[in-house]
Amino acid sequence: MIEKRVQSANGPVYYWTNDFKSQQDFAIVFCHGLTADHTLFTKQIEHLSTEYKLITWDIPLHGKSRPYKNFSFANVNRELLTILEQENLNRIVVVGQSAGGYIAQSFIEENGNKVIGFIGVGTTPFGKYYYKKSELFWLKHYSTIARLYPYRFYCRAGAKAITETKEARASMYKSLINLGKKDMLKATSAVYEEFLKINNEVHFTCPVLITFGENDRTGYVKQYCQAWAAKTGFRLEIIPNASHNANYDNYEEFNNLLNSFIHQVI
């Protein structure tokens, strides 16, 4: 993967892409979850790099895309749009894990003409319809609570809570350590603040696949995903032997689902 970047008035945004020779204007774009970075999709890159044009990126306030000011979903959408323009891409399948699914949904709402498919991994829908008030309260005050913990303890506990395998856990722990406590708090505050502003669901005009790990213990993710699929009729797949970072925990199962989905939409 080749490291590149775009620069806006708000800061640098780094992304990685493969040297895939194709005349097509299509790519798969991977959006990592809160406090992770582009390495969350290492197993997908290894599996698909010879088949498709791929884009992974450090979402603003994460990884190398720091410092970044004026964080908003709208500004993040503009950064991603700039990346697509720089790479001459007009059609994408976007894969969003956890809060990366929020970024993906926001982008689809604003730029749905460029998106031909969406895969959610342990993410939940826009729209207050689905959520318990207690869960929304917890999101609003998450950074206040997280601030109380010694950071290495937080990193160990956090990585363990959202993974099943040692490899996935080590990868998430490294991302958290590299982010640091100050920027972890900044990122969680900024992302959840944006999410809490959203009242309406996204109008999808592309195929949607919702997935989550069978052992995902993150909040009410499983219940919200099931309610989302039931309300919309979107396809739902439960990934066995996996937790919140299901695409890393059981990457073979997830990669099979991803391959199947891609073949259906392109």
TrEMBL record:
Domain AB hydrolase-1 as annotated: residue spans: 27-250
InterPro entries: AB_hydrolase_1, AB_hydrolase_fold, AB_hydrolase_sf
UniProt name for this protein: Pimeloyl-ACP methyl ester carboxylesterase
Protein species of origin: Metabacillus malikii
Source lineage: Bacteria, Bacillati, Bacillota, Bacilli, Bacillales
